[in-house]
Amino acid sequence: MKKIIISLICFACFSITNQAQVGKEKEELSIFENPNNWKQEIIKFPIDWAPKLKLTGFEELLFTPKWSDSQSDEFWSLLIGWKVNTNAPLTLKEIEYNLYSYFDGLMKPNHWAKKFPEPKVILKNHKNSFNGIMTFFDGFHTGKVITVNIQGDQHFFKDHKKSIVSFRLSPQNYNSEVWNSLNNIKLKKEKSEGLIQLDNTWGKEIFPFPIGFAQNINYDGMAEVRFPPKGWRDPKHQNFWSYTYVWSINHTEEITAKELANNLEKYFDGLNSVDDKNKHKKATATILKINKKESTSFFKGKVKTFDRFATNKKITLNVLIESTYCKEKQKTVILFKFSPKSFTHKTWEMLERIELVNTFCD
Fold it and tell me: Is the pTM of this model over 0.85?
């Protein structure tokens, strides 16, 4: 009897573990948010029935509720997402070829006809996206040739050597209500390996505490610095010296404005290798606490320091700081945003949108 009970417990544990693994894999093999629970299919590349397709990775399909009803405005309206391995963004020609190859294999008829026209794909670049049309044989529903409009875009992740290519398809004109439904489906946010929610076009540096060039900042933890894609070292660019970084540190109490100011001075003095011979490079920081919301304190101020990267002159940086303290874990995460531009300049619109990846107590 005991053996039977133990066996049942083991089977139940295996079943729960297996379901969890399947659920995790399904979550990882997904590209779109799916708030309306549209029917989903996941297909891994390469595909046996599409031998011409030259991609590795997987695709996710989301179908509008009436996509198979030829009398509905939703007929043949769906989303297709590809997450593929690539060293560079796919060219428009490569996207066209692979979409053609996919539908060429998908629509080989098994009862509609012995011969049918090959798909035709015509795409055009449009700013950061593309659009066009595709004509193909509908081997699923009508046995006829149909034409769909396509809206698409591509997101390339250099660090991971992957691209996400998304297609929104419908035979309906772009002013049809079905396009609102298709466009309301968004891409899932890519999980970041860092602390700040920014894409891979932003430069990244990660270093532990104590910091090599600023050993007198007495913390234990890590820091992540992120630089905008363009202009950080260009004095003529609006992004000059505009960047963000975060400190994730073990700290036993809420940080104060005075402590922030002292540590910023130590940080920039270390960055500029300040000693008795070059005291003119010494930093001064003025930080004021301006608000507090639950466990997060907000600060604002200025740092006067030296620019050794571009101009070799003194520079004043405006700074916004968010410091969140987790008492249970005695941990503090401090998000800094810097720019020499005034707080009313449009560069701050970019900086103020920057957020952390996760809540610090996770």
Answer: no
